[in-house]
Amino acid sequence: MSSLPNQFHALVIGASGTIGAAFVDLLSSSPRCASVRGLHRHSTPCLDFTDENSIAQAAQALGSDRYHLIINAAGVLHSDAFMPEKRLADLTYMQMQATFQANTFGPAMVMRHFVALLDSERAIMAMLSAKVGSIGDNRLGGWYSYRASKAALNMMVKTAAIEVARSQKNSVLVALHPGTVSSRLSQPFRGETIGRPARDAAIDMLDVIDALMPADSGSFRSYNGSELPW
Which residues of 93-131 are buried (b: 16+ CB within 10 A; e: fewer)? Predict the structure, then answer.
C-alpha cells in the first residue's frame, strides 16, 4: 500500500468473514500500516447490518479516528434459510429483503456514516461487490436477489462518489469484485475447487486499491484491475 501515507490506519468491516479476516491479517503484517481495526457482529463496537442503529453507533464510537482505508467485506449469497434463486418462481420477499439488507442497505449505511471518518490526505473506501452484479455482463440469468443487490450497491457507490468528490477531493469510493474465493460463501458452488485462497484474493484487491486515484472514484473494478461494465 505504497500510495497511502506511511503509518496509515485501516478499518475492515465484516472482519470475521473469510475475505475480511484475510484483509485484516495482511494489513496487520504491513510495516507501513499503523493500525487495522476489524468490525463485525460480535466486535466492540459491534456492527450488524440487520440493526441499522449499530452502524451509526459504531461510526460514532470511532468518530475521533480517521482512516486512510476502509473496506467493507460483508455480504450474503446464501444462508441456512435460502440458496440463490434459479427461476422467477423461486422469488420471495423474505430472501430478497435479507439479501438486499446484507448487500445493499447495510453497505449504503456504512457509506452514510463512515465517509466522514475518511482522512483528508488520501483515503479509499472499497465496497466488495460482484461481477454477477453487472447488468451488461449478465448472460446466464438466475441468482436474482444477489445480482440485483450487487447492481444496486454499485449504483450506491457511484452516486456517493459524486457527492463525496465535492467535499473530499482526495477520497476514492470503489466497488470491487474479488473473484471466486474459497470460502463458506462459494463452497456450495464449486468454490473449493475453482476458487483461490482468500489471502491471494485480498493481495490482488489491495494492489488494485493501491493504484486508484481520485479520478477513479465511483468505478467498478475487478481484482485484476480491469474496469467492469455496469
Answer: eebbebbbbbbbbbbbbbbebbbebbbeebbbbbbbbbb
Please report, as a single letter, which amino acid is at residue 43. Answer: S
The DSSP output letter for 117 is G
C-alpha grid cell, residue 212? 486508484
% pLDDT > 90, the chain: 91
Q: Provide the 8-state DSSP code for 38.
A: E
Three-state DSSP at 181 gives strand
Topology adopted by domain 8-222 = Rossmann fold (3.40.50)
Give the model's confidence band at 188: pLDDT under 50 very low, under 70 low, under 90 confident, else very high. Answer: low
Query: Could you tell me the three cell numbers for 2?
Result: 505504497
Quote the pTM value. Answer: 0.94
DSSP 127: E
CA distance linking residue 76 with residue 149, whole number of Å: 10
Segments making up each domain of the chain, as ranges: 8-222
Where do the DSSP E strands lie in the chain? 8-13, 33-39, 69-72, 123-128, 171-177, 219-222
* pLDDT band with cut points at 50, 70 and 90 for residue 191: very low
Q: Which residue has the cell 459524486?
A: 162
Strand ranges in 54-93 using DSSP code E only, listed in sequence order: 69-72
pLDDT at 190 over 90: no
Per the CB < 8 A criterion, the answer to whether 35 and 12 are in contact is: no
Please give the torsion angle defined by the CA atoms of residues 130, 135, 141 and 147, in that order, rounded to the nearest 10 degrees: 40
